[in-house]
What does this fold into?
Amino acid sequence: MTVALFGGSFDPVHNGHVNVVRSLLERVTDIDRVIIMPAAVNPFKAQTGTSASAEDRLQMCRLAFGHIPLCTVSDYEISKSGISYTVNTLEWLKESCPECRIILTVGSDSLESLPKWHRAEDIFRMADIAAVSRSAQDNLRIAAFAEKAQSAGARVMIVETEPFEVSSTQIREKILKNQDISCYMDKNVVEYILSRHIYERRK
It folds into this structure.
């Protein structure tokens, strides 16, 4: 069995994240399951005053990915709380399915820092890396990062996906300014955010 792991803060989840999963399934045809893994605390991202709660981020992921075949959203990292180190999640997956091939899905920025991640050598041992490229310009950057990661022992494949230039940070800023966000994410996620007043400035 081949399992793809796609983790992140998803604060909030948007169409760029969904595009990654769709592209991965289109280009790596032997994937049997995609696990979406919202982080409890991302060790690379500071918490801000307008961040969503772990439970809200989990629910938004369920709304965004629930209709995509082979996708499941896991609460493993959120339920154990604390900092979410990828290596620990991979060990959990390996214990659950010792014979599974695991594909860790990362963006170009994450690929650049990957050799410096906590216990990177164990990550490379347990998982193949699917590096997601979002543009022709990104292809050049990601190829250089892939070569660096491979020299550190990683097995890297590059997966091209549909360009998506807006980040979660920019979406949060648009919400603070009462700007329309409907073109950036699933309508059910938009409704969830607006109905719960998520990302609005706290008084």
About this structure: The first helix runs from residue 15 to 27.
